[in-house]
Amino acid sequence: MNQPQQTGQFQGQRYPILLSTMNDLPGYEVTRVFGEVFGLTVRSRNMFSTMGAGFKAMAGGELKGLSKLLSDSRHEALGRLAEEAQAHGANAVLALRFDCNEIAQSASEIAAYGTAVYVVPHTQR
Predict the structure, then answer these.
(1) 38, 86, 103, 124: which could form a disulfide with 107 (CB 3.0–4.6 Å)?
(2) What's the Cα-to-Cα distance from 57 to each of 7, 54, 64, 65, rounded to whole Å?
(3) What does the pLDDT read at residue 2?
(4) What angle do CA 105, 108, 114 make, to 5 degrees?
């Protein structure tokens, strides 16, 4: 289990706070709930990527350029979510979810949202 460091960070995490899709966190107690937070990004596909994806779609297979775009977008949304949660004083986000939408057939909106909380290990009660 990842133990919080003195800075409020969790070891092994890509983000400065703990992000979890779970509603509670085994081994930890939620001591404060700050409420809903979100991170949002909107990315447009470039013309060459769209054309290449169209040709690849005809042949079948993974659209690697679009997969990378969506993966990068998710990480950017998570980074913004973590920043907003930290600004409220949280050290974790629980019940993390994603929402994705297409805008005007040329852009993708990626939203990450969840509940900002402060957690402590059960041993620190």
Answers:
(1) 103
(2) 46, 5, 11, 12
(3) 45
(4) 145
